[in-house]
Amino acid sequence: MHSLSFSSNLPAFQFDIFRGHPIRAVVSTRKGGVSPAPWNSLNFSVVRGDDPKNVHVNLSRFAHACGFDRDDLVVARQVRGDGIQSVSHRMRGQGIVGTDGLTTRVAGLPLLTLYADCVSIVVYDVIRHVLGVCHAGWQGTTLQIARKLVQCLSKDYGTDPADCLCGLGPSIGPASYEVGPDVIAAVHGTLPAAASLLQPAERAGHAYLDLWQANLNQLVTAGVPAAQTEVSGMDTAQMTDIFFSHRAEQGQCGLFGLLCWLEES
Fold first, then answer.
1. From its phi and psi, is residue 205 left (phi > 0), alpha (psi between -120 and 50) or beta?
2. Helix axes 145-157, 211-221, angle to 10 degrees
3. C-alpha radius of gyration, the chain, whole number
4. Which of 83, 125, 215, 261 could form a disulfide with 99 if both were Cys (CB 3.0 to 4.6 A apart)?
5. Neighbour tally for 251: CB within 10 Å
6. How many CB atoms lie within 10 A of CB 28?
7. CB neighbours of 8 closer than 8 A, spacing ≥ 6?
8. d(CA 114, CA 221)
């Protein structure tokens, strides 16, 4: 990933893999907003105790920096599941309830998903000019939402996975994500090569889970060439000066966002 600064002095990041293609995928940070601690400062969540007026200002700032109005944004109302919704121009400005993934073929339609440790996954079909994005914590990962996102693009738009570029954004890394017996059991019960995704932790019955590799495996299994993927490698739990981290901040934090859209091809 590479950093960029908007004219409004909002720091943000973009994927290297999408350079030169008519797609934008911009990851916000926690900086440049108006929210007080513990949501300081560019918080996009209205359900973690922050004043909704602050959130509106923050979203407006980020949207304007990306060239949109706040009311243009299509926002996934995430539920830590595997629901994926195809988005048309008629859904501009809406919150899409009960979904952790969005897809579209509409240029200029900005799709927003929110994070504070979970993995953001962006998939772009360079031939058919369609876009998909999803949110994957351990629940979405064990439900294999990354694989399902590619399958939805194929079903709805005729995407060949071999034509896709994929980016995995800042999220909790394998050195930071300690999980307990319930998550370990879910990983073993749902994901191939589960043992390779888990490393022993000091606490008995616990392990460190590699969400990056787990979701990368799903994309490759779905047919995306590994060489056409990018993992940011930015561990939110170790970068709380830049990103929110639910784990590192014990739930006392906001959410940052990933805003992606298609440009005219």
1. left
2. 30
3. 17
4. 83
5. 10
6. 31
7. 32, 61, 64, 65
8. 25
Instruction: Assess contact for 182 and 134: CB atoms under 8 A.
Output: no
Enter the pTM of the model: 0.97
Residue 132 dihedral angles phi and psi, to the nearest 5°: -135, 150
Beta bridge partners of 12: 4, 28
d(CA 169, CA 152) in angstroms, rounded, equals 20
> Which element (helix H / strand E) includes 114?
strand 111-115
Preceding amide of 52 cis, omega within 30: no
Interior angle at CA 89, CA 166 and CA 120, nearest 5: 25
Is residue 170 within 8 Å of residue 27, measured between CB atoms? Answer: yes
| Beta strands 229-231 and 164-168, pairing class | parallel
In the numeric block, which tokens belong to residue 237? 């739990």
The size of the chain, in residues, is 265
**Is the Cα dihedral 130, 70, 4, 114 positive or negative?**
negative
pLDDT computed for residue 8 by the predictor = 67
- The rounded distance, in Å, linking the Cα atoms of 263 and 255 is 26
pLDDT digits (tens, 9 = 90+) for 148-196: 999 999 999 999 999 999 999 999 999 999 999 999 999 999 999 999 9
Q: What is the pLDDT of residues 6-29, one digit of tens each?
A: 766 899 999 999 999 999 999 999
What is d(CA 15, CA 128) in angstroms, rounded to the nearest whole number?
A: 20
168 pairs with which residues across the strands?
Answer: 121, 231
Cα-based torsion angle of the residue sequence 38, 44, 48, 54 in order, rounded to the nearest 10 degrees: 70
